[in-house]
Design brief:
Protein name: M48 family metalloprotease
Strand order of the largest sheet: 1-2-3-4-6-5
Oligomer: single chain
Cofactor: Zn(2+)
CATH architecture of the largest domain: Alpha Horseshoe
Order of helices and strands: EEEHEEEHHHHHHHHHHHHHHHHHH
Number of helices: 19
Shape: globular
Radius of gyration: 26 Å
CATH superfamily of the largest domain: Tetratricopeptide repeat domain
CATH class of the largest domain: Mainly Alpha
Strand content: 5-15%
Keywords: Hydrolase, Metal-binding, Metalloprotease, Protease, Zinc
Structural class: alpha+beta
Organism: Nitratireductor aquimarinus
Largest sheet: 6 strands, mixed
Number of domains: 4
Number of strands: 6
CATH topology of the largest domain: Serine Threonine Protein Phosphatase 5, Tetratricopeptide repeat
InterPro entries: Mito/Outer_Membr_Metalloprot, Peptidase_M48, TPR-like_helical_dom_sf
Length: 456
């Protein structure tokens, strides 16, 4: 199974029809994380990941790569999912840096580090419990004999045992990080890519600690110190015959366009200008400027800017996608639909997110024949992106305009279900079921939603 970039979504809201963020749970994140959905960024990161996952023997393992809306430079794994912060994507100046991050996280998955970490956690918990029981026993004995020193020692044994367990766990995690670093270099060599990006990443992290004036106890953290990681890896990285290999110019441009898009959405035009101050007239800077202009509510000027870019890159599907979004905002839905159709014809494969955007534009025309086509496109797009909760709202509208209330109710149920709003999902599923033939595919899907039991 080819790896996908997906998000199990809850509480969705839209920045623009082509860059969407949702909130979702992640067991290794702090509570809930905010996830980004974007066809262009996902296609690029998928391209980065594909050869690495193949080298790691994971290309058929259903690895999901999830983009987290967070400005920090970070990535982590949870099960068979790799989470990458948008801050890592914008701060990484080359594709090679992100490819190195993916290689490291793939090393964790291929090495089964999470399962072993769970075992270590159980062991650490057992050690802490045993230490606490021994400490309590000593404390009780001290109290019974009125020996205050023995009672105090009991408290110290309990606390010391828990600290030993914690330090042992952190030490184990640091060793796994070292293993993942070395495995990542192996994957990079197998795919003919440089490990220089990994060293650049660790150097950036070390510089951040120095600027912050942070004095870190290396035995109190779960990762080796950045300078230590550089020392461990530099000789190995430089021995590779691929060390000085640069990313292809076209890939570098796509990487910079991705950085411009994220910066425009998260921080605005000034962030784009700062990011590309060395090349303010280059295509990435122009792209970020066009997006920022669109987001600030000036569709006419934004359209001029994106058309200038299309004249330079006529076969870029994501410029056509941006053009479609601008035209929807300018209340020109039929022209927007044409732009989306062009984007779909140029994009590799048939991206579900682009197809949903095409359906949205067709729906906005209000013309019965195009609304019928919108329902078909939305349904097909959602079959490729079944967890894209926002798309079901448009599908429900399309069915509603066509007078198909049963399927409109079911689409609403699906939207609420994939947004994690299970109570509302069940209510709409019950309403849909009442209008459907018992045992039909729609009736059975409604029944699945009604009977679903939320985890936890």
């Amino acid at each position: 199974m080819v790896h996908r970039i997906i998000a199990r979504a809850a509480t969705l809201f839209m920045l623009a029809s082509y860059l969407i963020v949702v909130s979702m749970p992640a067991s290794q994140a702090q509570g809930r994380v905010t996830v980004v959905r974007d066809a262009e960024i996902e296609a690029l990161v998928t391209e980065y990941a594909a050869p690495i996952l193949k080298a790691a023997g994971l290309s058929r393992s259903g690895i999901d790569i999830i983009l987290v809306n967070n400005r920090s430079f970070n990535a982590f794994v949870d099960g068979r999912r790799i989470f990458i912060h948008t801050g890592a994507l914008t701060q990484a100046e080359t594709p090679n840096e992100i490819i190195g991050v993916i290689a490291h996280e793939a090393g964790h998955i291929a090495g089964g580090h999470q399962e072993r970490l769970r075992q270590q956690l159980k062991r650490a918990q057992t050690m802490a419990i045993v230490s606490a029981l021994i400490g309590i026993g000593a404390g009780v004995a001290g109290a019974a004999t009125d020996t205050r020193g023995l009672a105090s020692a009991g408290v110290g044994m309990a606390a010391g045992g828990a600290e030993m367990a914690r330090r042992g766990l952190l030490g184990y995690q640091r060793s796994e990080e070292v293993t993942a670093d070395r495995t990542a270099i192996d994957y990079l060599n197998k795919t003919g890519q440089s490990a220089k990006g990994m060293l650049t990443t660790f150097d950036r992290l070390a510089g951040g600690l120095a600027l912050a004036g942070v004095n870190v106890d290396p035995y109190q953290i779960s990762h080796p110190m950045p300078r230590e990681r550089i020392a461990n890896l530099e000789e190995l990285a430089r021995k590779s015959r691929f060390y000085d290999r640069k990313d292809p110019a076209q890939l570098q441009q796509r990487h910079d366009m991705m950085r411009a898009k994220i910066a425009a959405h998260t921080e605005g035009a000034q962030a784009v200008q700062r990011l590309f101050r060395q090349d303010p007239r280059g295509i990435p800077a122009m792209y970020g400027d066009a997006i920022a202009t669109f987001l600030t509510g000036n569709p006419r000027t934004a359209l001029q800017k994106v058309d200038a870019l299309i004249s330079k890159m006529p076969r870029n599907p994501y410029l056509q996608e941006l053009r479609g979004d601008i035209l929807i905002k300018a209340n020109r839905p039929k022209d927007a639909a044409n732009a989306y159709a062009r984007a779909l014809s140029l994009a590799p494969g048939t991206p579900g997110l682009l197809q949903v955007g095409y359906g949205q534009a067709l729906l906005a025309t209000g013309q019965p024949d195009l609304v019928k086509k919108a329902a078909s496109e939305l349904q097909t797009g959602l079959s490729r992106e079944p967890e894209f909760a926002n798309g079901y709202r448009y599908l429900a509208q399309a069915y509603g305009q066509l007078g198909d209330i049963a399927n409109a109710e079911l689409a609403s149920a699906e939207g609420y279900f994939h947004a994690g709003q299970y109570r509302d999902a069940k209510l709409f599923a019950i309403r849909a079921q009442k209008r459907m033939k018992r045992g039909s595919p729609g009736w059975l899907r409604a029944q699945d939603i009604i009977q679903y039991k939320a985890p936890g």
